[in-house]
């Protein structure tokens, strides 16, 4: 039984190679570590005597009602961690009342996931624009209520743990949404990552703002752009038709040397204004982290790795219940009756 959301890593009992696939970052993992050190350095000044008994954590995220200001981050190949994979975590998200974001690289077809949880769809830009259009149409037809374009993966970052492990997917775990499953992911390569070989075959590194404008033109559901760190890119995303941006460094798995997402959050909000929805991804490990992100100005956060650890431990529902408890405890201790009060807290750096 976990006492904190961060405990699930120790309870996950994965093979060393699969553990490294989740835990690792790119390069020397500087950005991976920076995500946590930046959160640890943030201080929040609590308020007192607010008469708060039961904080209200409910909100609406891009038109989706949510019991917590949280969405399950898009994460690939979840059948690596549990036989039911995405279905198990999506069911937990549905019970928790939060959006589940389906990855292009999910190991269960998106239609099956969307049937059991309020879902958004995360899109990678593929070489085949027809395949991109087909994914968008499938997501919309399945009832996905938002489209999240991940823009920071022209190529996969060099993830040295996977290289050293010659990481390869088992044959039963595939990119279930792709017509051509790109067999590179299952071909062992000594001293190389088969998953990186797969993304190199599938992804188009020339993805540009004009392509994003095309995406906007073919769907009417809310459009989010994930992978924003520079305020200029946030403004460009708005110009291209985005309804929201996600401040993210991909969990430290792409450009090693990028700032912590939480450190980039404030300048992005200053650029786009308080009325434009901004989400935060990367580094969230518990309810106090959620509160810190909201106090700086995020409208909601994406939670990733801790839920994969919980998935592997067979405890996805328990983990989301625990995250809600952690957030409510943090709000009580900070004197906040609701999320508007959290946004009014004063933050600093230690």
UniProtKB/TrEMBL annotation:
Protein name: Alpha-hydroxy-acid oxidizing protein
Listed InterPro entries: Aldolase_TIM (IPR013785), Alpha-hydoxy_acid_DH_FMN (IPR012133), FMN-dep_DH (IPR000262), FMN_HAD (IPR037396), FMN_hydac_DH_AS (IPR008259)
Organism annotation: Kribbella albertanoniae
Cofactor(s) essential for the protein: FMN
Positions annotated as active site in the UniProt record: 250
Pfam (any one): FMN_dh
Residues the entry annotates as binding FMN: 74-76, 103, 122, 150, 226, 248, 281-285, 304-305
Key words, A-Z: Flavoprotein, FMN, Oxidoreductase
Lineage top rank: taxon: Bacteria
Entry keyword annotation includes Mitochondrion: no
UniProt binding sites for glyoxylate: 124, 159, 250, 253
